């Protein structure tokens, strides 16, 4: 975990570090933007399964480049009961290497590759899901935590 530890602010302004959750599994997911179709789908699916993740002693943390103000609106609008962290300067995005060259309408730009990282209770990174599709992803993450597959 030490290689991947960081401190970011969450929607209520508290500093959050992965070390804070030692003894729990951590689902750390990176998403492009609050209140967009895919990101809302992904967040709502994680929220729908939130109780099941808690039963598995697992914390869900979402990270994007959006501001805390944007995160607060997103959380409140959709009733999200897990942490959303703001990484406006992309330091943590770069630490996890989720900033990738993308193409849209023939133009290239740097964007977020939707990715999820799972840490075990000892703080070890045990699984990476990279370049995933939002729909159905939360269920796959939960299955991995339950079954290790």
Describe this structure in words.
The protein is of the alpha+beta class. It contains five helices and nine strands; from the N terminus they run βββααβαβαββββα. The chain has a seven-stranded mixed sheet with strand order 2-1-5-4-3-8-9. Strands 6-7 form a two-stranded antiparallel sheet. Strand 1 and strand 2 form a beta hairpin. The chain is globular and about 45 Å long. The two termini are 21 Å apart. The relative contact order is 0.22.
List the helices and strands and how they pair.
Elements (H helix, E strand, L loop, with lengths): L6 E4 L4 E3 L7 E6 L6 H12 L1 H6 L2 E7 L3 H11 L4 E4 L4 H5 L3 E6 L2 E6 L2 E5 L5 E5 L7 H11 L2
Parallel strand pairs: 3-4, 4-5
Antiparallel strand pairs: 1-2, 1-5, 3-8, 6-7, 8-9
Number of helices: 5
Order of strands across the main sheet: 2-1-5-4-3-8-9
**What percent of the residues sit in helical stretches (DSSP H or I)?**
25-40%
Instruction: Give the N-terminus to C-terminus distance in angstroms.
Output: 21 Å
Could you describe the largest sheet, including whether it forms a barrel?
7 strands, mixed
Q: Spell the H/E element sequence.
A: EEEHHEHEHEEEEH
Overall form: globular
The assigned structural class equals alpha+beta
Q: Which spans of ≥5 residues are poorly predicted at pLDDT below 50?
A: none
Strands, count: 9
Rg estimate, integer Å: 14 Å
Query: Could you tell me the mean pLDDT?
Result: 93
Q: What percentage of the residues does DSSP assign to strands (E)?
A: 25-35%
């Amino acid at each position: 975990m030490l290689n991947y530890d960081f401190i970011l602010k969450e929607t209520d302004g508290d500093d959050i570090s992965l070390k804070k959750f030692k003894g729990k599994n951590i689902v750390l997911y990176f998403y492009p933007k609050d209140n967009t179709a895919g990101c809302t789908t992904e967040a709502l699916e994680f929220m729908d399964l939130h109780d099941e993740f808690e039963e598995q002693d697992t914390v869900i943390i979402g990270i994007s480049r959006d501001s805390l103000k944007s995160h607060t609106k997103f959380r409140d609008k959709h009733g999200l009961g897990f942490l959303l962290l703001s990484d406006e300067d992309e330091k943590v995005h770069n630490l996890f290497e989720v900033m990738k060259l993308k193409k849209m309408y023939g133009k290239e730009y740097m964007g977020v590759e939707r990715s999820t990282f799972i840490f075990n209770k000892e703080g070890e990174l045990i699984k990476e899901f990279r370049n995933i599709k939002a729909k159905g992803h939360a269920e796959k993450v939960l299955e991995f935590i339950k079954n290790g597959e």
